[in-house]
Specification:
The chain has 260 residues and is an alpha/beta fold. It is 45% helix and 15% strand. The chain contains 10 helices and 7 strands. The chain has a 7-stranded parallel sheet, with helices on both faces. Helix 2 (18-28) packs parallel to helix 9 (241-252) and helix 7 packs across helix 9.
């Protein structure tokens, strides 16, 4: 699987990890922030369903199980095989989330995930922007969007698509945040409504790094279940990629755990 091999080269350091970058997005801009307290359904649109889009959906389904909130995720892709690959690698998912009608009584599920195939103009920014604006409007007609994540495989295309969606959100006067994948250097466009996700960035450069790492290390100590330890040895174990990423992921999901 080529994309997985490519991603391994991106994530070759414990602090340079696209999964953690996406989880940090959901920590700094939590899903529930953009829906009123009285709103039961949180509606999320994922545009592009390659490696980063799939990682985002994984993270959303993991942290987004909140009391009195239900996730409705709509995935737009221009490749019909994206859904097939994603579902085949997660065969049990359809037992808990309503995947395109997999659960007869959808109210008993944790939420729903629907997939649609759209013809996107990846080589024409203006045409692609118009397509996405129309698709965003269509989704708003059925249910107001609270969260949009864009990962089309190219930084310029992602930013253009994000700006196009933001125009629709602004015109409609809706409360919604839009994030887009950025593999290179982020632009200056960064606000609560428009956020680049630096998938190759260093987590150590983020404002919350010291506090997150402290809490992550404490999590590792708890998982060790032994207070009579060699601190230097345990810190070395903590820095191993699997341990580090697992502990950081646990910390970044704390906000949602408080609502579970």
């Amino acid at each position: 699987w080529i994309r997985a091999d490519v991603e391994k080269s991106f994530d070759n350091k414990s602090e340079t990890n696209s999964t953690i970058a996406i989880q940090q997005l959901l920590f700094e801009h939590p899903l529930y922030k953009y829906a009123e307290d009285s709103v039961h359904d949180i509606n999320i649109l994922v545009v592009g369903f390659g490696n980063y889009g799939q990682k985002f959906l994984d993270a959303v389904l993991q942290v987004g199980q909140m009391r009195n909130k239900r996730l409705n995720v709509m995935v737009i892709s221009d490749d019909v095989t994206d859904k097939q690959i994603y579902i085949s690698e997660r065969p049990a998912l359809a037992q808990f989330f309503n995947i395109d009608g997999s659960i007869a009584d959808s109210e008993t599920s944790y939420g729903s995930v629907s997939f649609s195939v759209a013809s996107l103009e990846r080589k024409n920014l203006a045409a692609n922007a118009e397509i996405l604006q129309n698709l965003t409007l269509e989704h708003y007609e059925s249910s107001p969007l609270h969260y949009i994540f864009i990962a089309l495989g190219d930084d310029l295309l992602n930013r253009s698509a994000a700006n196009a969606c933001l125009e629709v959100v602004d015109v409609l006067g809706r409360k919604c945040t839009i994030s887009y994948v950025c593999e290179g250097t982020a632009s200056d466009e960064h606000s609560d409504s428009l956020t680049p996700v630096l998938v190759r960035g260093e987590i150590s450069e983020t404002p919350f790094y010291n506090e997150i790492e402290r809490m992550a290390f404490n999590t590792h100590l708890i998982w060790e279940k032994n207070l009579n330890i060699d601190v230097r040895k345990v810190k070395a174990e903590f820095k191993k990629k699997y341990n580090y990423n697992s502990c950081v992921s646990s910390v970044l999901s704390l906000k949602y755990n408080c609502l579970a």
